[in-house]
Every structure is written in C-alpha cells, then in structure tokens.
C-alpha cells in the first residue's frame, strides 16, 4: 500500500534556525556514538556551569503552592509589578502592570507580538545579521522580513538612513536587537535616537529585544529604547534566560510604552492571544520579582576579572593570533561573530566549515548565514566556556582552516555524513 506524502507547510520553506538545525542534529548523533562534542552554537549558561541565583530558586520553591493553578493571562501581579519598577527606574513613568505581558520566554512573545500585528504581506524591518527567530516569526505570521544591513565596517551598527530607505506603505514595525545577538554590538544613543525618530515619523511599532540589557563590557552604555520612543508604540522584550542564567524557567516579558492612542485594538489582540494559551509558566514567574529587585550578579561576571569578561578576552586573543580570522570586538551579549578573511581563504563557506569542524574537530559553531547574513564568511560562538576551553577550541579552528589553506578538500554540508575520529 502506498501512503500519501505528509508534507511540511509551505510557509516553512523560508524559515531557518540552523542554531538547532542539521549541524546540531549531527552533533547529537555523534554524542550518542560516544564522541565528546564542544557545543558553542547555543547561548545556554547552564550547560557551562553557570547557576541561576539561589534567591530566585528559593522564590520559586517557596511559592510552589501558589503556582499549581492558572493565573491571569498577562502574568502574576508581583512579576508584572517588578517589570514596571524596573522601567520606572529607567525613567519611564507611565508604565503600569496592564502594559506588561509575561510569556514563556521571549521566544513566545516574539511570536505573539507579531501575530497580533501582521496581515498578509505586511513588512517588518529586521536587522541583518539577526536573531533568526525574528525573521522566522515574521514569515510564519504571514509577513515579510525586510532586512536592514548592519555592516562589520560600521561596528555592526545600523545606518538609520539605510533603514529609512527600506520603508514602504506595507511596513508595520521595526525590530531593534540591543545588545545585539549575534554580533555583540551595543548601539550608540545617537543611532537609537535616530531610529526612534524614524519609527515615529512612519508610525511604526518598535520591537526592542533587550534580553542582554545588562551584559555590556568595557564601559559600553546600554540605552533602553523605550526611553527614546514617545510618539509611537514601543514594546521592550526581556526575560530571565540570559542575564539571570535561567533559560529553563522560560520566563520573558513584553512591556509597552510610548503612544498608546491608536494602538488599543492591537493591544486587545495581544491580550486575546495571551488568553488563548491560558498563561505562561507559573512557577518561574515567582522568580521575577526577586531577580529584578535583588543583587545583580551579572555585573560581576562582565566586569574585568569576571568570567564572561575573561572568556571574551580569550576569544579576542585567539582571533588576534590567527592567520585567518577577524573580529569586531563584541561590546555586549555573550557571543562573538567571527569573520574569516577573504584574502586568506577566498573560497571559505561558513556552512561547509561548520560541518567540517564538527566532523573533524568535534566543535559545533553556528554558521553566519543562520542569522540571515547575505555573506558566507562568518560564524558565531558563545563566550560561555572558560578561557582554557576556548583556547583549545580556537586551536582546533585554526587547524581546520590550515587544512583549507593547504588546499585540503572539505566535506560538503549536503553530502552523506561520516565519522572522522579526532586526533
């Protein structure tokens, strides 16, 4: 009997998430075969020994009895009030608990804020390179992602003039990711102010992804976008996953500020979508107030002498010593977006390299095209491993690039895979 083919939805044809795609699947397969794999493709602090602050864990435990039932679709009051307090400390006086939505991580909220907004063919301005969920969620919600370039030559910051030239009558929103994933750029106040004025002129919804808001280095200034946007609606998205090393809690929030007049229908739609999924994970919500109101241990990690600062320096030192690599110094977040010099390796292909590095050197990185970059010369690594591990990793990377420089053949990423034991 012949069974009909069960095909995937056509909307998925343009969706990519190679961070957990073919290379990651191959890495899991190799681990099951007994190989030790170093995975630098995902920013998962718990996998590298980072712990959620104990006070947050205790807050969850002490409130478990209050976490067994459904709660309000926008989240429990203490969690939303804590977000309001943080926004007020940043200078926003008109934010209330009614303006805050708690979600199952920022990932769910990215989907919800776009689903409530988009009709067929509506456009969203998204940075390139981007965190790929923004592009994917735009496509899956019937929209079109229009990528504004963030060039390495400009420190991976956007050029507001280039951004404005991309606006059409179908443009509905602009996404700002600051500090940026994957590049580590921290946008200047001037750039953010110009983007805010552009959004106000064109009545665009501003979607500001600030999940790495306290992860900055060497005096880089993080400027909350909501403090600059006044005459249009602004959504600030953040959560517990990165700054508070609590990825598994699956708690994020979207806080709305700016001009609400004319946005009432959109906000009601967002409340409806929140209601349809009943509520976000309740135990994790009880950690929000303690997290935002407690000691900010992330500051110790990113300061000189801190673990993240040291790992960042280890990556910079390894790139500086390489014959092939280049790096725009990351000023924020927990990633380095590393380039391979075309003059050294003119035929370099990021996807082929990532698969070869896994097969031959047992290291997983994310190829740059995973982040909707229009070039194939970059790859992203996380800064979470300790410096000795990163030194080892970059030794393996250099060895793989030496093979290319010597004219060695590569295993193409679309060929049958095989195990090559690391020596």
Can you describe this structure?
The strands form three sheets. Strands 2-8-7-6-5-3-4 form a seven-stranded mixed sheet, with helices on both faces. It has a four-stranded antiparallel sheet with strand order 9-10-13-12. Strands 1-11 form a two-stranded parallel sheet. The protein has helices at residues 22-32, 54-62, 77-89, 105-115, 132-140, 160-165, 189-201, 264-276, 282-285, 288-293, 298-302, 307-321, 350-361, 387-405; strands at residues 38-39, 100-103, 123-128, 144-149, 171-177, 205-209, 233-239, 252-258, 325-327, 335-340, 363-364, 366-367, 378-382. The longest helix has 19 residues, at 387-405. β3, α5 (132-140) and β4 (144-149) form a beta-alpha-beta unit. The protein has two domains: 10-50 and 300-405, Aspartate Aminotransferase, domain 1 (Alpha-Beta Complex), CATH 3.90.1150.10; 54-293, 3-Layer(aba) Sandwich (Aspartate Aminotransferase, domain 2), CATH 3.40.640.10. With 423 residues, it is of the alpha/beta class.
Q: How many distinct folded domains?
A: 2
Assess the beta-strand content as a share of residues: 5-15%
Helix content: 25-40%
Q: What order do the helices and strands follow? A: HEHHEHEHEHEHEEEHHHHHEEHEEEH
Number of helices: 14
| Biggest beta-sheet profile | 7 strands, mixed
Would you summarize the structure shown here?
The chain has 423 residues and is of the alpha/beta class. The protein has helices at 22-32, 54-62, 77-89, 105-115, 132-140, 160-165, 189-201, 264-276, 282-285, 288-293, 298-302, 307-321, 350-361, 387-405, and strands at 38-39, 100-103, 123-128, 144-149, 171-177, 205-209, 233-239, 252-258, 325-327, 335-340, 363-364, 366-367, 378-382.
């Amino acid at each position: 009997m012949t069974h009909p083919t069960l095909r995937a939805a056509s909307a998925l044809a343009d969706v990519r998430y190679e961070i957990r795609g073919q290379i990651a699947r191959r890495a899991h397969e190799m681990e099951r075969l007994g190989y030790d794999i170093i995975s630098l493709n995902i920013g998962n602090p718990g996998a590298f020994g980072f712990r959620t602050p104990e006070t947050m864990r205790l807050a969850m435990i002490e409130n478990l009895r209050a976490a067994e039932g459904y709660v309000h679709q926008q989240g429990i009051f203490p969690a939303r009030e804590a977000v309001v307090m943080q926004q007020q400390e940043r200078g926003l006086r008109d934010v209330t608990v009614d303006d805050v939505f708690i979600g199952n991580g920022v990932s769910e909220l990215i989907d919800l804020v776009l689903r409530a907004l988009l009709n067929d063919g509506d456009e969203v301005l998204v940075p390139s390179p981007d965190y790929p969920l923004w592009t994917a969620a735009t496509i899956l919600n019937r929209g079109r992602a229009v990528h504004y370039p963030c060039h390495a030559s400009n420190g991976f910051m956007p050029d507001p003039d280039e951004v404005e030239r991309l606006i059409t009558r179908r443009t509905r929103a602009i996404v700002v990711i600051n500090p940026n994933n994957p590049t580590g750029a921290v946008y200047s106040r001037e750039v953010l102010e110009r983007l805010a004025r552009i959004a106000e002129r064109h009545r665009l919804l501003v979607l500001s992804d600030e999940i790495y808001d306290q992860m900055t280095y060497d005096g880089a200034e993080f400027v909350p976008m909501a403090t600059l946007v006044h005459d249009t609606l602004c959504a600030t998205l953040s959560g517990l996953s990165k700054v508070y090393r609590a990825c598994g809690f699956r708690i994020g929030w979207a806080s709305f500020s700016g001009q609400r007049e004319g946005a009432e229908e959109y906000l009601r739609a967002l409340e409806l979508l929140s209601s349809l999924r009943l509520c976000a994970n309740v135990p994790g919500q009880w950690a929000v107030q303690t997290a935002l109101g407690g000691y900010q241990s992330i500051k110790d990690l990113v300061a000189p002498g801190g673990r993240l600062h040291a790992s960042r320096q280890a990556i910079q030192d390894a790139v500086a010593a390489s014959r092939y690599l280049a790096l725009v110094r990351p000023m924020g977040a927990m990633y380095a977006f590393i380039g391979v010099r075309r003059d050294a390796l003119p035929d370099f292909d990021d996807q082929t390299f990532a698969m070869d590095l896994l097969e031959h050197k047992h290291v997983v990185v994310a190829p740059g095209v995973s982040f909707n970059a229009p070039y194939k010369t970059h790859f992203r690594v996380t800064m979470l491993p300790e410096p000795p591990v990163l030194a080892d990793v970059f030794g393996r990377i250099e060895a793989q690039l030496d093979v290319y420089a010597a004219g060695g053949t590569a295993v193409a990423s679309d060929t049958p895979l095989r195990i090559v034991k690391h020596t």
